[in-house]
Design a protein that fits this description.
This protein is an all-alpha fold and about 425 residues long. The protein has a single domain, classed as Growth Hormone, Chain: A. It is built from 22 helices and no strands. It has helices at about 10-30, 35-40, 45-50, 50-75, 75-95, 95-100, 105-130, 140-145, 150-165, 175-180, 180-215, 230-235, 240-260, 265-275, 280-305, 315-335, 335-350, 355-360, 370-380, 380-395, 400, 405-420. Helix 5 runs antiparallel to helix 7 (about 105-130) and helix 6 (about 95-100) packs antiparallel against helix 7. The two termini are about 20 Å apart.
């Protein structure tokens, strides 16, 4: 029996170009996670208020997923990717006027526009990658492409650590509260200028990527279709059990991922401050642990992609979700450095989850794949609503106890993995 290629040679260049988009949106995701802590300090807000950054960020994914699917179905995957890159660039450049206003709301608008672009990118790129070769190797192919997402994430984390967190004024929350109004305003405006830099830089990089992809001929894959019947598509899709359950599992996964990567800063800062470190130094060191978590995530992604040759996707997903639940329990009950090590280790278990859930859910959706992809991108809503909930728990309880929310998410994913094994046979 002839072995099916993961990526056919004839599609290698388009595959590489579209895969680069995975790294580009990885940067946006992970330069933004530490901003919850940063904005909370810059504007003297609670953890809940600061986490509205994630509400705006992942709300853009949710709001634009269906319009993106309609656009892609009417035109093409390439058109969807170009629209995504354009909105991404505009969102990044909007940080310039946002920083001039000195207000929090314009930043939320900039995040929302930026992630409307990311919604177009993910709605286009994921099914496009799945279509670039045999269906038998589709999940492997998507895992391979997603393996480059952590590379962009690492650059984003490095930019957040070295160009934002380390560049902010060293005054802690209490010191800022005690400042005279004029001094506080000067410190705030200087900090917002620091925040602006990496977003403007990535906006310019995205403009360059837009030009490159626009000029390169991409396979059409018969993806353009002027006939759109969204209601019929979703009626068919939600008759598919593994698709319905996959959307729910994806919502839990994205929520868990964003909570773990956002609040590792709060958790680590609390641990290091308790050990006698200054707040700013503790924040920068916590971001280094976040970078370590992303390195583990990226290495684990390649390992898990290899393991998929020998272990069924549902089984591997279940085992990793159980491992993540055990580690999160360590965060809750151990506390201190042991809890921080557990929180870093969770990333090894999360690495496989998004593309595997995505591939399982999209299997067999046929002509409805574009709308199916939009439903899975809308599931990123979990990353919008769950971090503010955890931020509220931090405000009323403590950081360690708040990780009960990611624990619930990983248990739900383990149940989905079990059902994929036993019921859906994948």
């Amino acid at each position: 029996m002839e072995k099916k290629p993961v990526v056919p040679k004839s599609l290698l260049i388009p595959f590489v170009l579209i895969t680069s988009c995975f790294a580009l949106w990885g940067f946006a995701n992970d330069v933004t996670n530490p901003m919850v802590k940063a904005f909370s300090k810059i504007f003297l807000m609670s953890n809940f208020q600061g986490s509205l950054v994630q509400l705006a960020f992942y709300g853009g994914y949710f709001a634009m997923a269906i319009p993106a699917a309609i656009f892609i179905k009417k035109f093409s995957y390439k058109s969807g990717i170009l629209m995504g890159l354009a909105l991404y660039a505009i969102g990044g450049l909007l940080f310039v006027p946002a920083s001039w206003t000195g207000q929090f709301t314009p930043f939320l608008v900039a995040y929302f526009v930026l992630t409307c672009g990311l919604s177009f990118l993910e709605t286009s790129a994921n099914p496009y990658i799945l279509s670039m070769g045999p269906e038998e190797t589709a999940t492997q192919r998507l895992n391979l492409a997603q393996s480059f997402n952590p590379m962009g994430s690492l650059v984003g984390m490095f930019a957040a650590s070295q160009f934002i967190l380390a560049g902010l004024d060293g005054s802690d929350y209490a010191t800022r509260q005690a400042m005279p109004a004029e001094q506080f305003e000067a410190v705030k405006m200087a900090d917002l200028g620091v925040v602006r830099g990496p977003y403007v830089a990535i906006g310019l990089v995205i403009l360059a990527a837009f030009v490159l992809i626009a000029l390169v001929k991409m396979p059409k894959n018969q993806d353009a279709d002027s006939s759109i019947n969204m209601r019929s598509s979703y009626r068919r899709l939600f008759k598919i059990p593994h698709y319905r359950e996959g959307v729910v599992a994806q919502m839990f996964y994205v929520g868990a991922q964003i909570m773990c990567w956002t609040f590792i800063i709060q958790y680590g800062t609390e641990v290091f401050v308790a050990r006698g470190m200054g707040e700013q130094a503790a924040e920068v060191l916590s971001q280094k642990y976040n970078i370590a978590a992303m390195i583990i995530f990226g290495v684990s992604r390649f390992i898990c992609t290899f393991l998929l040759k020998y272990i069924r996707p549902g089984a591997l997903l279940m085992y990793l979700a159980i491992g993540a639940a055990v580690l999160i329990s360590g965060v809750i009950f151990f506390g201190g450095m042991a809890g921080l090590y557990c929180l870093v280790g969770v990333s090894a278990c999360m690495s496989l989850m998004f593309p595997t859930i995505y591939g399982i859910a999209l299997k067999g959706t046929g002509d409805d794949a574009k709308f199916a992809a939009a439903g899975l991108v809308m599931a990123i809503l979990g990353g919008s609503i769950m971090p503010p909930l955890q931020g509220h728990l931090i405000d009323i309880w403590n950081v360690s106890a708040s990780f009960i929310l990611p624990l619930i998410c990983f248990v739900a994913i383990a149940v989905f993995g079990l059902r994929v094994m036993r019921v859906h046979r994948a």
